[in-house]
Amino acid sequence: MAGPQKSSSVYGSDCMLQESKLPGLKKIMNRRNRMNGLTLLDRMPDCSVQAAFFDPQYRGILDRMKYGNEGVSRGRLRSGMEQMSADTVREFLGEMGRVLVPSGTLFLWIDKFHLVDGISGWIEGTCLNAVDMITWDKQRMGMGYRTRRCSEHMVVLQKSPKRAKNVWRDHGIPDVWPEKVEGRNHTHAKPVRLQARLIECVTTGRGAVLDPAAGGYSVLESCKRTGRNFIGCDLR
């Protein structure tokens, strides 16, 4: 009987299917799990997922602005969410880099303040490299003391070695993506169609997609649409 194949790259012909590398986690795959994301990552083996999404619960805009709606409705939910420190974000990114296969992709959501301030401190010392950025046009007007927020940003990070050929397979994705989220079930709801397109672009077969801070579980829905395996969790 042949032994397991070597996992040299998510895109190599000898890539092991990720389901076989996660036997201890099959019971929590493709479902909503309530746990700390770092606890989940600690249980995961090296080089076991093809792609990952991360929406850190930092509060970059709330730390700089007081809109006056922190006590009501969605404003209360937004301001009440537990904040991640910069050290915690770095710990998440380091662990996510570890569990990604070589040349795997991590999609990191950031707000405009972190876009301006930079995220180099978050990924310094990890195996992750910034290779691109996508702006999500939310098709709705948000808040702002000067310009009104209508977009969010996603930094595309790739685990070493950096590769584009045969890794990023969909060259029709624009760097500004318009998508209105309907029926918002979470204060930080994300665009399912964009995430599904990205998942299909950088993953193959039934490979696992990770989201250790899943929020409204839009990545789970995107995985269902694309036939990929989801593994993720949230504190709530």
Automatic annotation (TrEMBL):
User: What Gene Ontology molecular-function terms does this entry list?
Assistant: DNA binding; N-methyltransferase activity; site-specific DNA-methyltransferase (cytosine-N4-specific) activity
| Superkingdom classification of source | Archaea
Q: What is its EC number?
A: 2.1.1.113
Domain DNA methylase N-4/N-6, chain residue ranges per copy = 88-235
Tell me one GO biological process term.
methylation
* Catalytic reaction equation(s): a 2'-deoxycytidine in DNA + S-adenosyl-L-methionine = an N(4)-methyl-2'-deoxycytidine in DNA + S-adenosyl-L-homocysteine + H(+)
Q: Which Pfam families match?
A: N6_N4_Mtase (PF01555)
Q: Which InterPro entries match?
A: DNA_methylase_N4/N6, RM_Methyltransferase, SAM-dependent_MTases_sf
**Keyword set, alphabetical order:** Methyltransferase, Restriction system, S-adenosyl-L-methionine, Transferase
Q: What family is reported?
A: Belongs to the N(4)/N(6)-methyltransferase family.
Name of the protein this chain belongs to: Type II methyltransferase
Q: Which organism is it from?
A: Cenarchaeum symbiosum (strain A)
